[in-house]
Amino acid sequence: MQKPAVGKFITVEGTEGVGKSTNIAIIKAALDQHGIDYIATREPGGTPFAEELRALLLANRDEFVDPTAELLAVFAARAQHINTVIKPALAQGQWVLSDRFTDATYAYQGCGRQLGTALIEQLERLVQKNLQPDLTVYLDVDVQVGLERAAQRGELDRFEQEDIAFFERVRAGYHARIESAPARYCVIDAGQSLEAVQGDVKKQLQQFIESQLR
Ligand code: TMP
C-alpha cells in the first residue's frame, strides 16, 4: 500500500485583537473549497491535558508567575499537542491549522517577558525535533488598535492585562522572526478594512494551497 503524503502545517499568529478567529474561518473555507482534509487546533491547548495547561496559563491570579515557569508550561502543552495530535494527523496526510504555535513563544515569552531566544531554541529542538510550520499567516496591526478591539470582547485574561510596552515588544518579536525567515510567513496588514484583510488572506491561502497541490 502506498504511504499517504504528509499533510501541511499552517499556523496563524498575531498580537491581541488582530482578528485571528475571523481569518481562521476564511482559511478553513479555502481548505474546504479545495477538498482538503484538515484539523483545526490551537495553542496553548489542542488536547484535554494541554487545554488544562492553557487554563492555568491564562487565568488571572494574585501570585506572580515566573517567566521561566510560564515558558516551560507552554512547552509542556506543546509536547502533548505535537505528539498526540499534530504529528499523527500530518503522518496520515491531514493538514493541520493551528491558532498560534512557537512563533508566539518567541514573541510573548522571548520578547514580551524578555527571556531571550537561547532557552526557547533549546526547548524547540527538544520538543519539536524537525517539525516546523509550512506556512505562517501573520496578522499585523498597530498594538493600540488591537488592544482596543480586544477590550471590547469582555474580561481580559492574564496576557491581555499586560501593558502596551509588553505588546510592543511582542509585536517587535514577531517582526524579528519574520525577518529571520521571510519565506515561511505571509504577512497581512490587519489594520485595513475587514473586507480587505479577508480578501488578502483568501488570496494568499489560494496561492499556497495551489502551490502545494501542484
Ligand atoms: P489566544 O490564542 O486566545 O490569543 O490566547 C492565547 C494567549 O497565550 C495569548 O495571549 C498569547 C499567549 N501565548 C504565549 O504567551 N505563548 C505561546 O507560546 C502561545 C502559543 C500563546
Core attributes:
214 residues; alpha/beta; 5-stranded parallel β-sheet; 5 strands; binds thymidine-5'-phosphate
How much of the residues is beta strand, in percent?
5-15%
Largest sheet, spatial ordering of strands = 2-3-1-4-5
Estimate the mean pLDDT confidence: 96
Distance between the ends: 23 Å
Structural class: alpha/beta
Number of strands: 5
Q: Report on the biggest sheet.
A: 5 strands, parallel
Concise summary:
By secondary structure, the chain is of the alpha/beta class.
Topology:
Elements: E1 9-14, H1 20-33, E2 38-42, H2 48-58, H3 67-91, E3 95-99, H4 102-112, H5 118-128, E4 135-140, H6 143-151, H7 164-180, E5 185-189, H8 194-213
Characterize the structure shown.
The chain is of the alpha/beta class. It has helices at residues 20-33, 48-58, 67-91, 102-112, 118-128, 143-151, 164-180, 194-213; strands at 9-14, 38-42, 95-99, 135-140, 185-189. It has 8 helices and 5 strands, in the order βαβααβααβααβα. A 5-stranded parallel beta sheet has the order 2-3-1-4-5, with helices on both faces. Helix 1 runs parallel beside helix 8, helix 3 packs parallel to helix 5 and helix 4 (102-112) packs across helix 7. The longest helix has 25 residues, at 67-91. It is globular. The mean pLDDT is 96. Residues 42-44, 74, 99-100, 104-105, 108-109, 159 line the site of thymidine-5'-phosphate.
